[in-house]
Specification:
homohexamer, alpha/beta, 4-stranded antiparallel β-sheet, about 45% helix
């Protein structure tokens, strides 16, 4: 089970999502069709194999509507799921459980989808020494949760935002008059706990960057051949990150070039949902 | 161009997303590498063909960091984009524009991805008389935006939440003792501006539902043959909605059975991002 | 007892109301005059006959200041109260109870006032087949609570906001070039779970609207005679809603014209408070 | 025109109210029936005589949806209105104006209702030397606005919350062992800018309170005779406030007893709305 | 122990502070270095003598991350601490406790610093009859907490904000055309529970103010000689407040002039932190 | 002028601070004493020498109450101020300016106090090669602003929160079974853009840490002699940070030991306010 975010961070998101679904009138259907006080036992399970993430969101969503609900977690965040695997069993007020169901599943399906896709990338590079990492291409307002889901899938996080690492991209290079001057400006500006990464788009620019010794160099859209050349030139002095158009088809070959890190935007921007459902016992 | 949501609804989301990315220290890289007061001209364009949505989010993100930015929208929400098509041209403070870039693209790419996938489904059923609709399987906190993107793609919205229509599902049926009693309870409970939909999973249950005359009946995971039978039995008295495992491969055949509406969860829960970028002039 | 809104919707309102009253210094009087740790037993009761609503708000207000308070609800939301009837008995920290008192009573009195006035309208039309409904003339920020109070009084809710039903009014008619074109535009624009209502101000306009078969037609400020004529012309094909200047004096006669629904703005915009107090045992 | 609250206080309330009405889908009707870009000229006017309050809320609601709207205020907060009087003229985007209409009117009608009722009480005591004041029986979340409306009606504000003055009521008296000890405890506890008021329910208790010289003594539900006796005993040494069951019928007689202040809960808890409408030019 | 603010006021501040520290990724260090489920016993104690304030914030910070934490308060708000004194003992989830530590200490240290400095001023004037009071020179967003800390240090609060008392300063005097007219305008404008204070900067202006009988007169930057003269002239008819450049060196002499109140901005704007730490048992 | 935080981060704090001061009734004094529409010209200036920070907060506070205010900034964030130096000149609505004054000054004074103290530390180590840095001992809710003020004073920022760098302290060492295992666990857990710092309290522990090659080692409360020994042993392979009880008296000697960074909690937890005032022209 992967270390999660504290409830104090997650709970406001879950409550806002419930309010979004309940609207100004509450769950018309459950109030109409279900007797007050009725109880329901049900099970969250996955229709497909994958990796689960977001169990804490599911739990908080149900408890927000029924603080006395009994929830038994069978598979915690980061666990691999076989198709059909049960994730949790719940016994709760029937109206509350059905009112929370969609919100709980929206978190669980989306985050598990990210964890599942991440795990596929991580497994694909197993044994190569390359690490898989995410990007900042996350859903607005859900970055903390989605970065958590990436960790559940076995990958590492790239920076969390604009303020926890420097990442010099082409427009910064253009503004600073070259990747070298840009790195020097960054070194002069930031504190001793901030790593500096520079993006380069050619071997020539790589050499210019290497001369300034940043912590990390991102090799943007390099061919396999150029990636290998970059690894050779860097001689282990900086961390090399391959980036750009990485897919499950291409990732292993990229990893085998010897780069240290491969960043994959698709982990968060294009992961399909993992199909999880709630089945009444 | 599709009618958008008012800024008063969108702006808090955009500002929260910017705050999420700026964190506690702001954009370390742009501050370090770009001179204060420098200006930048750039263009948002799509690397692939698709349908754009979220232009208003992009605009608000940039204006939040540079209220004097000049933004010319070339393709409004709902417009079809050829690969390479320009969406907007921007001239703004360089630091502000680069600091807003990722947030703007995260909204634009995700919402355009939804609009693009939606449009593919809508086009696939063209001429059949069936309408495509979304579900409540949306990203938590972004439902209003994602439902808007679905409209940009040419489809209709299913209900917005638990309080604007009744949707009787299997668990409600079980609790009420049958789909008939459930519909009767709903009719007795809700106001005159609330539509009532009931989900059925067999032709037998369809007959039971038809006897109570709800506004809409959802045919859940029906075979094509059963869908046709359902259309025949309903005789136009209720709206029929096909649901469950609809894909681009299967949607036209489903539409050709004569159902009125086809709901597709994938529109919002599994749409890949549309690859949009910001290119400096 | 009427089905309530989930605490997740109500609690932020209650906490904000407490914060509004406590200000930046807390309850100066209770801190000064009451010993820390003192306990108090008290009873909420109504000085006049009526219908109670908002018991959940009262409960949450007290629990917010004393999570260990013991609160026994004697009359739940929707219950009829005789003058003097006890609503709840509370045993709590004395400072906490007195600090929460005004906030609890402000919710309880206002919502019970709405429920009480609503019940008077509902009782006045008993046996006629007409339903009483509210409007969107609610207190800003309290719509969910006030619509709940209307349900507690035995009436139905009109739409919750601008997005859960179409209501074509005179200005929309003018903009669209007639009630007929307006209804056609609405049908072409909205999803299959949205009801469409059109307001008409004359029998001539009623005919124009009937030709387009909306779900509901609102008869605005019609005389009793015209209401009867409208009922005759509609022949049960649409729901007819009478609206405009409805009072307890006039409502029964309106109901007896055969209209289906009577909407009453006064339920929420002009209901006097129900006089409820907290009496120490 | 009465001095208003700064927009920084009012604007979050107005925006929250708009969001409440727009929901997750925006104004379905206006989007469907009105062409994008259409303009509308309209006038806010009162159907009945009264006193206006909340003009700033109306203005902010419209500007929130159309920042380019042209709004000319004809009657500012506190102005007396004849029946039919125009309050403001607006020229704005048609969709924006109609979407904001109900929110604007809900603020305007409610606050003007309070100002109108307040003015009736103030006029009723004219020339007596007694001041009319409100109470804390306000709508949750709207206290600042409602207290402002009371000022627009020509009355004074009682305390704003629990922290800006001491008000010793019967339960505090009971807890402290008498009104005398309660006043002494309050004097010992609070700062030099906090006024102390004590409620008494008999002439005997008045004497006990007078001996401790609070700033204000509230005479709760005193007969006219007892009010006169209280005025005589107080000899101008403290401010005397009459409270309890004050109506337009009784208020002048109360004022003529010589009390300084008369507090009226009905100003905020039971004022009917002032009927204000928006008429298209 | 000093009466505290209700949790309903404090908790949102504590949760926001935790979110500020946890950021988008949580406590990287504790998650990496500490096993899930490990427990920790520790003690909050002060490295220096002082007065404690903010114990409730500390408690809420820890409970927010571990609702099952066991916290025993040894010294409540307002208690004097010897150097080394234990304030509280905690047994909690190790990760949760270490993640909450800095937030808890930031509240505790800052508020105890204020209480400690306040106590020094209060002790310095002991026996003189003068009261020490704070000002509005507080940390933005923390006024309620800082004013509470001042009370913990034994002093009284000046007004809480712009709306709970009138304080006429030089610019108001200039605008109104003199301190006399300013006081008269204030008396005509505000309610009967609002105290009026006027600032004067000379004995001449004092006389002008005394003629209008405000509740309080602030003597701004008066010499000791002028303070004594002011006390003589006021003859006990108004409360006299000395203000301006008050330090621990000068405060007793000021108090001995006979003024009633001495306001000290430094209590909140320049109090050094009290050095409190968390020591593992 | 130092690069500031975007308004989108600062504005919510400023507006919340204004709301805190305006309360539920607004600025009673200015409304009473100043005519509506009156204008005022005034100047912010510092009574003492220092470094200014927070000019943007001041500007936003005034504009929030008077969007048409004219504000000319004479000294931007980071500028050194002589005693008496003017910071900005303002011409604005008189009521608005006086209502915003205290909030503007509370931000300006506090942040300039931090910048001023920081500058004193930075100047004290000039020429030594050591950098001054802050800590996480900041005011709850104001970390972004206070870290900005530290930059205005010429120092660097330590980590912004728990999630942007690893800082292994004594309790983590104890939990992990030594500083070596703790560093190894951290390296195994975090991404490639996260720096790892370990705190040591002796030369022996330094050696253990050096063997694991973290990015930074914090030397906690080392004597000058031990600091020199540490510098010798580290041989430039890691960044060395001195911490613990650093004062203006001791900082230069510490810097001269050759450490790279000196962190000073007092910068944010104990900086006295810079005395800045608003003088009417």
């Amino acid at each position: 089970m992967t270390a999660g975010l504290p409830d104090v961070v997650v709970e406001p998101l879950v409550r806002a999502a419930l309010a979004e679904d309940l609207g100004r009138g509450g769950d018309l259907t459950s109030i109409a069709c279900i007797d007050a006080g009725a109880r329901l036992s049900a099970r969250f399970s996955s229709r497909r194999a994958g990796v689960v993430a977001g169990v804490g969101c599911m739990r908080l969503a149900i408890l927000a509507l029924d603080p006395q609900a009994h929830i038994e977690i069978l598979k915690g965040d980061g666990a691999r799921l076989a198709a059909g695997a049960a994730i949790a069993e719940v016994e709760a007020d029937a109206r509350a459980l059905l009112s929370a169901e969609r919100t709980a599943l929206n978190f669980l399906g989306r985050l598990s989808g990210i964890a599942t896709l991440t795990r596929a990338f991580v497994d694909a590079v197993e044994g190569t020494g390359a690490a898989i990492t995410d990007t900042r291409k996350t859903t607005p307002l859900l970055r903390a949760l989605e970065k958590h889901a990436v960790r559940c899938g076995g990958a590492r996080n790239h920076r969390f935002g604009l303020d926890d690492a420097v990442l010099i991209k082409d427009n910064h290079v253009a503004a600073a008059g070259g990747v070298g001057p840009a790195i020097r400006r960054a070194k002069a500006a930031v504190g001793h706990l901030v790593r500096i990464e520079a993006e380069v788009d050619s071997l020539g620019q790589l050499d210019e960057a290497l001369a300034e010794a940043p912590d990390v160099i991102m090799l943007d859209n390099f061919s396999l051949e150029d990636l290998r050349a970059a690894v050779a030139r860097a001689m282990g002095k900086v961390v090399l990150e391959a980036s750009g158009g990485v897919s499950l088809t291409t990732v292993r070959a990229i990893a085998e070039t010897g780069v240290d890190v491969i960043s994959v935007g698709a982990l968060t921007h294009s992961a399909p949902v993992l199909d999880i459902g709630l089945d009444v016992a």
